[in-house]
Design a protein that fits this description.
Blueprint: E1 5-9, H1 16-30, E2 37-41, H2 47-54, E3 59-63, H3 80-85, E4 90-93, H4 96-101, H5 106-118, E5 122-127, H6 131-135, H7 139-150, H8 156-159, E6 163-166, H9 180-198, H10 200-205, E7 208-211, H11 219-223, E8 230-233, H12 240-247
Parallel strand pairs: 1-2, 1-8, 2-3, 3-4, 4-5, 5-6, 6-7, 7-8
Helix pairs in contact: 1-2, 1-12, 5-7, 7-9
Bound molecules: 2-phosphoglycolic acid.
């Protein structure tokens, strides 16, 4: 049995005060939650406050990106060690918004994933096709390229520590969710790629999250699919009640 993971990606939202207020409202709503791992990824500036607010609660904090170097002259960048020191247990890597607006490539995704693992962080590695790619029947080949160029070079022990997130770009922030069947089909392709590269055992323990317009209203249908092991939630993770409703699906 794969343990479900519900992760919230706050993107560029929430100040320190808003972060503290969120957890004050959110933690009591999930205090009795045992059935899944809960992760929240605030912006860099709020990481320490989030880690302090959630200490002892079982909620894990993750960053939204990192640089692959240990340290160096990279103005504006943050290393894995800095993120770990801020109290994070994980980090999102290769989000489609990073790929689309900030030049993230499959190669940089691989470097960042390795850097995260070396610092003891759990990477949540995102893959997914755009609308043009889906309509051109390229979804499977895009996932294959992102998997092979971004992840296949990991060692089996490295691969066993990652979470994969399937996030069709056309479903992110658009209100247009992939149907549970569409998501499950893509997850099945990804699991088959993992099996081909790392063997069936590793593939069957790999947790694959779905992301793209996940809401309290659609989480149950998604989680009813055996292939879907959790969710990466953007907009609906900003409100404590709606994120708690998703966590407690
Ligand atoms: P959304 O974002 O839930 O707002 O669509 C998902 C994501 O980008 O991780």
């Amino acid at each position: 049995m794969r343990r479900p993971v519900i992760a919230g990606n706050w993107k560029m939202y929430k100040t320190l005060a808003e972060t503290r207020a969120f957890f004050q409202a959110f933690l009591p709503l999930v205090a009795g939650t045992k059935h899944c791992d809960i992760v929240v990824a605030p912006p860099y500036t709020a990481l320490t406050a989030a880690a302090e607010s959630t200490r002892g609660s079982g909620v894990a904090i993750a960053a939204q990106d990192l640089h692959w170097a240990v340290e160096g002259a990279f103005t504006g960048e943050i290393s894995a060690r800095m993120i770990a020191e801020a109290g994070c247990r994980g980090v999102v890597v290769g989000h489609s918004e990073r790929r689309q607006y900030f030049g993230e490539t499959d190669e940089s995704v691989l470097r960042k994933t390795r850097a995260a693992l070396e610092a003891g962080l759990q990477p949540i590695v995102c893959v997914g096709e755009t609308l043009v790619e889906r309509e051109g029947n390229l979804a499977e080949s895009v996932l294959k390229r992102q998997f092979e160029d971004g992840l296949a070079a990991l060692t089996p022990p490295e691969f066993s520590r990652i979470l994969l997130a399937y996030e069709p770009v056309w479903a992110i922030g658009t209100g247009r969710t992939a149907t549970p069947e569409q998501a499950a089909e893509a997850h099945g392709h990804l699991r088959a790629m993992a099996a081909a590269r790392f063997g069936p055992e590793q593939a069957s323990s790999l947790r694959i999250l779905y992301g793209g317009s996940v809401k309290p209203e659609n989480i149950r249908g998604l989680m009813a699919q055996a292939e879907i092991d959790g969710a990466l939630v953007g907009g609906a993770s900003l409100d404590p009640k709606s994120f708690a409703a998703i966590v407690n699906y």
